[in-house]
Amino acid sequence: MFDSFPRAVRTRLDRPRYHEEYYRVLRSGIRYLDKLERGQHFKERGFASWEAFAAGQWEKSIALAEERRDAYAQQVEEARRLGVRQRRLRVVEFPVTPYVQWEMHVLRVRVDVGDAIRVLDARKIADIEKDRPVPEVVILGDVVLFEVQYDEDGNADGANRLTDPQLIAETSAGFDALYEQGEEYADFFDREIAPLPPALRTP
What we know:
single chain; alpha+beta; eight-stranded mixed sheet; 7 helices; 8 strands
């Protein structure tokens, strides 16, 4: 259900074109938006909270994440106004990496304002990751599937756009199955993240 996507149907988009296409389709009348996040180490340059985290300023990074609350609430409200159901599934490996620990605090703010987010222990999908990890994907209704790309340093680097209806349907079904296996965010956070000491950034 998450096999390697055939290159013949890919269209490579750089980051600005990906964002432009993403918002165009989001506002085109689709009914759902699903995101699967798999990577455990990323860089989010320009995001003040991440910059503070990367600088070793843990408390500041958490405070800056809280300052994004109104912006996240507006995103949730826009989706509701558009009639778009949003779901996010975050795959987590153990031990939790410093990046994921930080990101979980950002996601907590999103959940607080209404985002539907679940967490999936990577060990539960070991059987479908024998050859490669499941891809980072964004599914916008039955219209388009984006395979999100990152460079070797962990920076966002656009996406591959795929529009084959059968591929989108199969990937959506795969997402549904994994989302059902996921744990409610609050339960996971309280048990696995809240007790951790402040994360030290990785080099």
